[in-house]
Amino acid sequence: QMRFEYHSYPDGIHEIELKGKSEEAGLDERFRDDVYIVCTMDKSASQIVLNCDATFILNLECDRCTEKYGEERSIEFKVVKVFNKENDDPEDIMKLKDKLN
To answer: Which SS3 state, helix, strand or coil, does residue 71 take?
Structure first.
C-alpha cells in the first residue's frame, strides 16, 4: 500500500510524490511496473485536501492480433479528509490504494 504520514506535515500547501511497485500498492495484474502519484496537499487543522495525478502502465491486449502490450495511462483524483472529535487520531494514515482500483 502506498502511504504517507500526513500528521508530520505542518498546515499549508505541500507537494508530495509517491512511487511504488504496482503489486506493492495492492493493484491487480492489469497494472505493471511502478505507479507514480504526485499530489498537492492543502492541510489545515480541520481538513486535508489532496489533488492527485497518478501515472501507471496498464496491461492491454490488441483486439486484432491478441498481442499483449503495456500503455501508459494517468488519472486525476481528489481525496478529502475532514477531522472531527471522532476521527482526529494522530496515528491515522492516508491510504491511496483504493483510489487506483
So the answer is: strand
